Amino acid sequence: MAVGQPEVLKWLEALQRIYAENRQWLTELDSAIGDADHGINMDRGFTAVKSELAAHSPSDIRSVFQSVATVLIRHVGGAAGPLYGTFFLRAAAACAGKNEIEAADVVALFQAGIEGVGQRGKAAAGDKTMLDALLPALDAMRKGLEDGGSMAIILDAGAAAAQAGMLATVPMQARKGRASYLGARSIGHQDPGATSSYLLLRAAADTWRS
Amino acid sequence: MIGMVVVSHSAKLAEGVCDLARQVAQGKVRIAAAGGTADPENPIGTDAFQVLQAIESVYSEDGVLVLMDLGSAVLSAETALELLGEERSSHVQLCAGPLVEGAAAAASLAAAGASLAEISLEAQNALAGKVASQLPRAEDTGPSEEALVTLHNPLGLHARPAAQLVRLARRYQARVTIDNVAASSINAVLSLGARQGHQLRICAQGAEAHEAVAALVSFIESGCGELAPPLVAPSQHQAGGIPASAGVAIGPLVKLRPAAVETVSRAIGNPEAERQRLMAAVNGAQEETRALYEWSKTHIGADEAGIFDAQSLFLEDPELAAGVSRRLVEDRVGAESAWQTETTRFADRLAALEDPYLRARAADVADVAARVLRRLTGQASAARVLREPAILSAHDLTPSEVKDFDPTMILGLCLEAGSASAHSVILARAMGIPVVAGLGPGISAVADGTIVAVDGEQGTVWISPDARQVEALEGRRRDWLAARRAAELERSRPAATRDDRRIRVLANISGVAEAVEAVACGAEGVGVLRTEFLFLGRAAAPGEEEQLAAYRAIAESLGGRPLTIRALDVGGDKRLPYVEIGEEANPFLGWRGIRVLLSRRDLFRTQLRAILRAGAAQPVELLLPMIAAVDELRETKAMVGETEAELEREGLPFKKNIRIGVMIEVPAAVAVADQLAHEASFFSIGSNDLIQYAMAADRTNSRVAPMADPFQPAVLRMIRQTIEAGRGAGIGVALCGELAADPVATPLLLGLGLEEFSVSAPLIPELKRAISSWSVPEAESVSREALAMDSCQSVRRLLLLRRPSPEPRRQP
Which of A62, B49, B119, B432 has an alpha carbon 20 to 30 Å from B512's alpha carbon atom? Predict the structure, then answer.
């Protein structure tokens, strides 16, 4: 199947719901190794996204993503704002001129967004960040695409890899962001950024499944 | 007017800092605040759009300095730059200096007329004075010592180097602090958040204070174990260029000038006869100069060619001609003497001028004057002789000039122009001479005999380095030489990765001598025999028997190792008198390579016959240059079939079903690599041409040469696509450009699945060593990361940072 503007809106609505539901969990994770605001930030950001899109929803995918980026940058304090903002900014560019996106475009969208996060945060795999969920997810999606998988299979593979990547952050020592100040004491905690990134992919897989 | 932006999580703080800075700036700097978020319920935070607006409100081409407080302020500022666009963001500098002190320092300096770079540096170091004034007084617990050192690690003082630093600090009997925090605490050191370029103040007190400070300074200077090279902060004593040939060298600088021409005293004829002789020499030199001008214009660029244009004007100068005539008549001297006196007077007058540009012209005058004198005296351009080993500086060199050098006398090369891929530089690399190219005209201002150091890996030249720098650089030179020696020892071993994946390392050669050298250097065969050496510099094409003899001799000197013979590749910059190409607006997009061969079938048939016959008793393969379409390959295969039938009829022994490979050097060939792979026996990626064609950038044009970077994402994707196409069809893929020999690129190429590297023979040992230090999974992770990057700079940075795991390769 192909994803059009209505499906993109559905994904963003799902994200608002999911970050609201998981606000407490993300905040708990963040209170262990950060400043206990990640759940609050993500919830606030996507609630603002929802009301912005309710008031004014552009008809093309690119503009939708652009306005998501703008809202996140404006409303999410902390590093998550510019990082997720950059994700959607690059994703928007990847969708330029497309009314519907196919499996390959979806992978390209995530690739552009994830590369953007990598460049903005300058983190590497193993630094205990969002990228530890996103990079394996990207690899899995690319592989799924190369193997000729359907959109559902590709996105499921991405979400599964993101979940594994998220869980793999537990034994890692943080090397980026506030958690890195804790040094070895950051070991044993799941990274909240990797967790919110996993949720992002999970929601895409669930809403674009059929 | 310079602008400044203060980014803070708190709107009040940002405004307050701006007030402070405005007071210092006295209205001479535009200052704007970007503090807090737009959300009244959560006012603490940063907002990239506010930063963007603030930058725009103070923007001018003089530049904008952005100071930021904590964590996400930096990310927001970087996002704002992305939103601002590349053009304008190139005039914006994000400064890692302290917010309050940095803003005050930058504002006062900017008000005094300093440049963006200067105020940024000052802001960055704005804490130094405060730190110094607040250091705890020495107590009676032993001697104390302190030093300032700059952090070079691109990723800042992150966990790994910080941990090593802490371990090192704990070894000494001293209380050590870094920027006033305890060096023995990992958390304290990490909390510094020190980034690249930060100046760190190391203080120690106690019995071993001196040793502790010395150890920490040298550890930090050497890149905290992350970077091999000890970089030094940019200054007038240092020049940055293009890293062109790896290696480190220190020695006296010698500027390369046209060789002095000796004049011998001789009997003088009548003034008119002398004038005639001189005229002939001037006309000859004029032709030579014009040819140099034309050549430089197409190969280097119009700006650089301008030198020869100016020289040509000088030769036509009527004042000069009148002066020389006067000397001939009045002084009754010979043409040589008259010419030398007048031109020297002219050059001296230029050399005495204030204007550095005109002063530099004196060298051009001397150059062209010598050209005339050489014609008068009949002397050839003398080989350049050095009496002691030295570092040479020159504007640029031709390949033949480099070839004239005695490599034992040339420690290193500093080139004003040029690029890493110029032929002269490739040659220097093959000779093991470190080169920094693209230094610009500044290097010519350095006096002969000045001690300079050249770091061809980093692209840095130090002018009169101080004792500490010399010590560090000499250490690196020793390491470099030791690595070369070790590599030479390894040469006889076949190449394999650390986890024992066999990799074929072949040589690019042209001629028998290089075939012998290839075997001596440990090549497993020849990846490309460039057959042009047989064809160039003669009036008619070599015949079948001559070619056969040459190919046989080469195959025999390889002792049974495989030989891949590339069919003649003329056109582009290579012309032959017996292949009439005619005027072409774009020779590199014109009639060259396989295009010539398929329309000059006489030439091609003769070469094919010689190659097939040489393959009768030796492992010979055929390689086709400049293939852009499948048809060209099919047509060639048909010709090979006909040639086989001919040889069969004539009863001559020849190689049946010779393996035919294609050079992948045109983007079109990459695009149809999957189709070519069905028809070809193997691929050989010619990265040099592929890069230039892919980027539409001529590597001899120094303005666009940086575009022709092998690490351009576009190029890397093409290489990946080619390797994947080869793998899909089950045929081998080799890479035979200079990229193959660059040890920095080795993990990337291994990770992409390349299994054959073809390089110039002297580079083989080092390449094998590079291959053996990586495991396949490590290399794959490097190439995965590299392919995800969107600029050649970030790829290069990644490759320089990623080093293989330290454990040595297991010996079987």
Answer: B432
Residue B327 has pLDDT above 60, yes or no: yes
Residue with the two structure tokens 């914006």:
B92
Task: Render B331-363 in DSSP notation, one character per residue.
Answer: T---HHHHHHHHHHHHHHHHHT-S-HHHHHHHH
Residue B360's pLDDT band (boundaries 50, 70, 90)?
Answer: low
Residue B235 has pLDDT above 50, yes or no: no
Pick from B79, B187, B190: CB nearest A86: B79
Taking the C-alpha atoms of residue A161 and residue A131, their distance in angstroms, rounded to an integer, is: 12
Do residues B616 and B610 make contact, with C-beta atoms less than 8 angstroms apart? no
Search chain A and give the residue with CA nearest B81. A120
The tens digit of pLDDT for each residue in B774-788 reads: 999 999 999 999 999
Mean pLDDT of all residues in B235-242: 73
> What is the rounded CA–CA span in Å between residue B592 and residue B606?
18
- C-alpha to C-alpha distance for B97 and B461, rounded to whole angstroms: 28
SS3 B339: helix
Are B575 and B607 in contact by the 8 Å Cβ rule? The answer is no
> Please, which residues bridge with residue B263 across strands?
none
The rounded distance, in Å, linking the Cα atoms of A104 and A144 is 10
Do residue B48 and residue A85 have CB atoms under 8 angstroms apart? yes
Among chain A, residues having any CB pair with chain B shorter than 8 Å are: 44, 70, 73-79, 81-83, 85-86, 89, 111, 115, 118-122, 124-125, 138-139, 173, 175-178, 180-184
Q: Can B198 be counted among the known catalytic residues? A: no
Which residue of chain A has the CA closest to B797? A122
- Nearest alpha-carbon partner for B206 in B169, B168, B180: B169
**Active site residue: B9, B299, B395, B423, which one?**
B423
Instruction: Give the model confidence (pLDDT) of B696-711 as tens digits.
Output: 998 888 788 889 999 9
Of the candidates B44, B45, B75, the beta carbon closest to that of A120 is on B75
Retrieve residue B96's tokens: 């890692």
Active site residue B423: yes
The closest CB to that of B45, out of A77, A119, A124, belongs to A77
Residue B502 CB burial class (10 angstroms; 0-12, 13-18, ≥19): exposed
Residues near A142 by Cβ (< 8 Å), separated by ≥ 6?
A: A107, A111
Helix, strand, or coil (residue B322):
helix
Q: How many pairs of residues across A and B have Cβ atoms under 8 Å apart?
A: 86
Query: For residues B4 and B99, is the Cβ–Cβ distance under 8 A?
Result: no
Contact A112, A65 (CB under 8 A): no
Q: What letter does residue A180 receive in the DSSP assignment?
A: G
Provide the percentage of residues in chain B whose pLDDT is more than 70.
85
Instruction: Give CA–CA dist A5/A12, Å, rounded.
Output: 11
Question: Is there a contact between B308 and B296 (Cβ–Cβ < 8 Å)?
Answer: yes
- Structural Rg of chain B based on CA atoms: 31
Pairing of strands B682-685, B248-255: unpaired
- Say if the Cβ atoms of B44 and A139 lie within 8 Å: no
Asked if A74 and B49 come within 8 Å (Cβ–Cβ), the reply is yes
Give buried/exposed letters for B541-561 (b at 16+ CB in 10 A, else e).
Answer: bbeeeebbebbbebbebbeeb
The DSSP string of B765-800 is HHHHHHHHT--HHHHHHHHHHHHT-SSHHHHHHHHH
How many beta carbons lie within 10 A of that of residue B512, not counting itself? 16
Residue type, B728: G
Cβ-contact A49, A104 below 8 angstroms: no
Task: Return the pLDDT at B175.
Answer: 86
Q: Which of A78, A120, A177 is facing B79, going by the closest CB pair?
A: A120
* Residue B721 in contact with partner chain A when CB distance is under 8 A: no
